[in-house]
Structure formats: structure tokens, C-alpha cells
Amino acid sequence: MNIDKLLEGLYGEEAARNIFESLCGLFVLNETKQVNFDTISSDEMKRNEKVFSENITNENYEKNSLSINNNIYHMQTRKGDGGIDILVESGDIWFVYQCKFFTDKLTESKKTGKDYLRSNRIKQIENSFNKAFETANSANKKIVKWILCIPRDLDDLEKRWFDDFKNKNSNKCQNIKLIGNLQLRNWLINNEKIYHHYFLNSQTKTSEKSELNVFNVFKSYREGFEYDLINAYSPSARRRSSLTNQTNLNLFFKYLNGFKEQFYKVYDLFLEIDQRANLNKEQYETYKANLMMNNENRIAFGNNIDKEAEEIQKLTQKKEIEEYKRFLRNITENFSDYYF
């Protein structure tokens, strides 16, 4: 269960951001006070949901607390949240939670080696972190715990960035943590009422809207698929080939009849394309950077890259992929026939 795609499919991207923040707020309540959510009424749930989604327009910070607890706050101002989305306050001590509804990867691989490149998403996280400490200092408070909440789990490069981020900022805060998809998912499994409220009840009440949202996500995937194939066999394209990446497909596995079966029919072929394409892209980067290579070797090296690109292109035109493309087209043209 991927929290990001489920929320995005049910509520749409913009609303999903607010709902995700609500979920994180309830998670914080559970972690801090071990609240028994089975005893909370639906009306209380709706009131708290409203607290986390309304825009506070005062210039000064508003401590807009959850009604079922009095020391956990949602922070907003007209000029931004000061790097704080959810605040747990005890005297002069602050626990700060920063919620980022990022569904894409935070890092990218460098051209050579296994180091990472910082993305705009990482810069947003780092800016929010620094703003939170500025806010705390101006309020004469001390942040002793800072937690990043995102609706997905980190891959190896993202984890390396997060470890570096913690080490770099250890002088500011010794307790920097992450709440990701796995932790949120396990919490939802243990809190059936919350899961029903956000995912099952909402799905029932807004089934038509949900179908439209899933359709829009799928339409974007289908439109990008042709580009992904071109990117795969083009060695000069800087983006890595990721036809086997299932992160964005879990929503379709859940809601579209036959999608998972059709995807796995071409998975092994996608895997071969990804591996060969990314190796050829690396060869191209080596070719482009190695200016000291003599002309004869350079021509031979370039020819090998072009030849491999042609072989990869032939793979992208195989019968299995053409059938998969027709399947995607059929879903777009007859969406309701495939929507569970």
C-alpha cells in the first residue's frame, strides 16, 4: 500500500497534500499520547480534519490545536508556516514535524560513481529545517526533535542524503528522524478506524471523483510511456531508463482490472531495456567526457554506442510492448470497463 498514490487517486494531488498532513497529525497524536482512536467519534475526526486543512490568515503564528489534545498544533501564517507543519510543545521544548507530500525521488545519481545530486525537493526540506530553527530561536524555544514526514520510503541514494543531512546538522539537533510510507502504513493497519475514514469511506462517497482522479494519473502515465521508450534507447538522454519502476503503478494495480497481469508480461523485457539502456548512457557520458581519446578509438567507441542504441530500439518495438501499448490505449478509450 503506497500512501502517496492512494491519497492522490482518491482526492487529487492538491487535496492529498492536506489530507496527508492530517494523517501525520493523527500519527503524531498516536505517538505522543497513545490515543485510542476507536473511542473518537466521526464528528471529532471531521473537526480535526478541518483544523488541518483551513488556512489561518493572521500575521502571527496561530496554535491551531487538535480538539482531542491540547499541546499538538498545526502552524500556519499568511507568509508561510515558518518551517513548521506540526508542533508538539512542552514548555520551552519543541518537537517539530515537517510534512512533504513528495511522490518523486529526492535525489538523482551523478554521472559517475554512486554519489547523489540534490534536487529542488531536497532544497525545500533543508530550507524548512533552517526556517524551523529560526522560528524557534525567535520564540525562545528549543527544538530537541525534528521529524520529516513523506509518503514514501527512501532508496539507497536518498538514505545516503538523509544520513549526510543528519550528520551535517547534528550541532543543531541530535534527534533528526524520518516517518515514511512503511511506518505510516503499519500505523494505519493498526488503526482500522483511521484507514476506513480516509480511504474506504472517502472512496465510497466520492467514487466518481476517484475514478476521474485515477483516470488522470493513468492518462499521464500513458502519455509519458512513449517518451520513456524514446528516452531508453537514446544514449544522449540524461534521464535514466526506469520502465520497471513500479512506484507509480501501484495505484493502477489496485484500481484497474488486468493492469498488473499485463505489466508483468513485459516486465522482463523492460528490465533488459533498463539495464542495457543505462549502461549505454554511461558509455555515452564516458565518450563525451574523454577528450584525450585518439580519433580512431573515439570513432569506434561512438559506433558501438550507436549500434547498441539501435539494438535497444528494436527491443522497444517488440510485439510484447506493442501489445502493452494497445492495452494502455484501450484503457484510456474504455476506462470504466477496466476500473474496479
Keywords:
2 domains; single chain; 340 residues; alpha/beta; six-stranded mixed sheet; 8 strands; flat; two-stranded antiparallel ribbon
Detailed description of the structure:
- The chain has helices at 3-11, 13-33, 42-53, 120-138, 156-168, 181-190, 192-205, 207-233, 250-255, 259-265, 267-289, 295-316, 319-333, 335-338, and strands at 62-65, 72-76, 86-90, 93-99, 107-109, 116-118, 142-149, 176-179.
- It is α/β, with parallel strands linked by helices.
- It has two domains: 3-205, no CATH class; 207-338, no CATH class.
- The strands form two sheets. Strands 1-2-3-4-7-8 form a six-stranded mixed beta sheet, sandwiched between helices.
- A hairpin with a 6-residue loop joins strand 5 (107-109) and strand 6.
- It is flat.
- The two termini are 17 Å apart.
- Residues 49-70 and 76-80 have low confidence and may be disordered.
Largest beta sheet: strand ordering: 1-2-3-4-7-8
The sequence of SSEs as H and E is HHHEEEEEEHEHEHHHHHHHHH
The secondary structure category is alpha/beta
Report the span from N to C terminus: 17 Å
Overall body shape: flat
Strand coverage percent: 5-15%
| Main sheet specs | 6 strands, mixed
Number of strands: 8
Rg, please?
24 Å
Number of helices: 14
Relative helix content: 55-70%
Q: Could you list the spans in which at least 5 consecutive residues all have pLDDT below 50? A: 49-70, 76-80
Work out the count of structural domains.
2
Mean pLDDT: 81
